[in-house]
Amino acid sequence: MFKIINTIAICSTLLLSSVSVFAADKNPNRDDRFETKFVYESRVTIDKDRVTVGQSKYGERGIIWITGGEFEGPSLKGEVISGGGDWQLGRPDGSRELEAKYALKTDDGFIILVQNKAIIRAQPTENDPKHNYARSVLSFEAPIGSPYEWMNKSIFLGTVDLADNYNEDPAVIIRVWQLL
Length: 180
Hints:
By secondary structure, the chain is mainly beta. It contains 1 helix and 9 strands.
């Protein structure tokens, strides 16, 4: 019995010492934990007439239809295909959850499906009282064997901003980075 307890104690000590070696090696809170690479910026045109579903058990539901647009980055360029939508939830805490689904068509003819989930909330600053926090996580479905297959294998982060001339030509600017 003593031998079993002693063996367990030795194993526990080894396990704890190996964990502490790894934990001491790198600070999990360091600023360089993640690296990103810019992928593209898109200008996505939308129909300003929001379809309102109304209050649901989760909050106020609405849909904004995507009417087109364009995107460009260091290794891809093309158009946003009309017909997608942005399903929105106005939460009781004042934040909005967005889930947009749409498609991109690259200049070389490939179709890439996009799912973009975002949180938007007011975050006024002294310099910009109308500032919003608008961050998203995107996933892509690109054709296997295409030059864009790499997009199927990573996590992507994004920002969402209203276009400068939003009132005259409703569009949002979405910038996307690959998490390396």
